[in-house]
Amino acid sequence: MALLRVHSLVCIFATWFISLVSSACECGYSVNSTLDPEYAVFTDLLESDFTKIKNFKDDFDWRPQVWQLDPVAALGPYGRATVLEAIVPNPAVNVSINATGIYGGQAGLNLLVPHNYTLINGEKYLMGAELDSTRNDMFYGTFRIGYRTTKYPGTCFGFYWYHDDNQEIDIELLSRQINATDTLINLVLHTPVGGTNLDALPGTYQVADLPYNTSAQIHELRFDWTPSAITWYQDGRQIWTISNTTLFPQQPGHIVVTHWSNGNPLWSAGPPEGNAALVLTYVKAYFNSSDSQRQKDHRERCEAVGGGGAVCQIPSPVGPPRYEGVSPDELPYFFSNDPARNATYNQTVYEEKTSGGGKRRSEAIGSGLAVWMLFLQWGIPVLGFMLGEWRPRIGGYMHSLY
Ligand SMILES: *[C@@H]1O[C@H](CO)[C@@H](O)[C@H](O)[C@H]1NC(C)=O
Ligand SMILES: *[C@@H]1O[C@H](CO)[C@@H](O)[C@H](O)[C@H]1NC(C)=O
Ligand SMILES: *[C@@H]1O[C@H](CO)[C@@H](O)[C@H](O)[C@H]1NC(C)=O
Ligand SMILES: *[C@@H]1O[C@H](CO)[C@@H](O)[C@H](O)[C@H]1NC(C)=O
Ligand SMILES: *[C@@H]1O[C@H](CO)[C@@H](O)[C@H](O)[C@H]1NC(C)=O
Ligand SMILES: *[C@@H]1O[C@H](CO)[C@@H](O)[C@H](O)[C@H]1NC(C)=O
Ligand SMILES: *[C@@H]1O[C@H](CO)[C@@H](O)[C@H](O)[C@H]1NC(C)=O
Ligand SMILES: *[C@@H]1O[C@H](CO)[C@@H](O)[C@H](O)[C@H]1NC(C)=O
Ligand SMILES: *[C@@H]1O[C@H](CO)[C@@H](O)[C@H](O)[C@H]1NC(C)=O
Ligand SMILES: *[C@@H]1O[C@H](CO)[C@@H](O)[C@H](O)[C@H]1NC(C)=O
């Protein structure tokens, strides 16, 4: 009994101590509380609130991709043309009032797959979009995306961590696998011991059933990678886990979001019957870095506040992210949108030009600008294809993308 009392006093003291110092997050961000039996701490973060990002060129956390695969290389009747024009921001007028974007509809970043093919050197290509994170040093982490799929069958939405084809933690959602009540998602751990997607090793591929139509509202997909488990979640609920660590990635990587079609009936199918829009409201990643400079930065800022106590728990609500009819403090949470809390000190984060807070690495700025210079030079001829699931609203350059 005496022992028990001492123990609970220690707990109360620990809670008090943590709440005193945890307003800043110099030592990291945790899944579960550090007082829980199982938890994981990550040192670095990447947060993109796409309901607020007006100029995607200001978001140096992402490198929008431009590449082509001809129909043979793309394994489809169609080739794949990954273009910047298929990435279209539609930020909320004021997300604290409602989630209506400046062009109408759900606010967020649109990744588009147009219905119509485009001819390149006489061959048919379907256009699509891909974002790769600028950070390429992610090793362990919790990776989360707020999304709403297209209602048109015939596209593939991928959200994955990637080192190479043998070290990849993957979620793929085929819009042909959506019906009125359910959506199937394909979860894959690509391993060094062979197998990809449908021919993956037993135990590395799982089809999970989400009990809703993913094109009707925003939901969250997530995967956590720790030294002991890789676990997938939907709307905060666990759906699958792998704990055979010999299959786990061994090298650092980056995250990718992609929306594409090649017309192959065995996978993406398509082309989609209309202009297909995948809407992203956020990506949040809390991860450890393989970069020795970032590791040193973490050690220094954590030691400067006296060590391990300054860990902030990552909010992990159960249920879909909510945007309509909620008060501002019930919107999805971002440490980097909370300057009063000083929760992203010395992190490499996206920030609006006017606000203070995090710090950005200079090399990321260079690559972001280079890509967007290309967009400005080459964007205009392609504007004609945007009709259907998104509609033209107002005149002007960005508006004509709708
Ligand atoms: C968080 O706690 C839950 C049980 O409450 C557990 O299943 C999960 O693995 C924990 N996550 C981590 C990263 O430890
Ligand atoms: C958004 O709306 C809220 C609530 O009405 C208001 O307090 C806030 O100032 C608005 N923000 C902007 C940028 O207009
Ligand atoms: C969102 O708020 C704006 C401004 O109050 C209003 O014009 C618009 O109709 C609202 N949208 C919805 C879907 O309620
Ligand atoms: C596809 O192209 C055809 C021919 O130009 C056009 O009539 C049609 O409206 C386009 N469809 C969509 C969905 O853009
Ligand atoms: C899923 O929901 C969307 C939006 O409500 C709707 O347009 C679509 O028809 C639904 N899909 C199916 C297969 O019922
Ligand atoms: C919808 O998809 C689920 C999961 O594949 C399946 O169990 C269900 O029977 C489907 N419903 C209809 C009406 O086809
Ligand atoms: C991430 O790195 C920190 C600092 O080295 C370490 O304390 C923590 O356990 C690591 N997280 C995981 C999940 O391994
Ligand atoms: C883990 O995976 C490896 C490689 O496929 C396999 O040889 C081993 O038997 C697996 N271990 C367990 C406990 O399933
Ligand atoms: C903050 O980060 C920068 C860039 O990584 C590093 O040079 C610096 O030493 C860090 N400062 C502190 C106090 O952590
Ligand atoms: C944020 O935290 C850092 C590290 O603890 C501290 O040096 C800095 O002064 C704080 N900034 C503000 C605005 O409180």
TrEMBL record:
GO terms for molecular function: hydrolase activity, hydrolyzing O-glycosyl compounds. This is GH16 domain-containing protein. Residues 1-23 form the signal peptide. InterPro entries: Beta-glucanase-like, ConA-like_dom_sf. The chain crosses the membrane at residues 369-388. It comes from the Eukaryota. Pfam families: Glyco_hydro_16. GO terms for biological process: carbohydrate metabolic process.
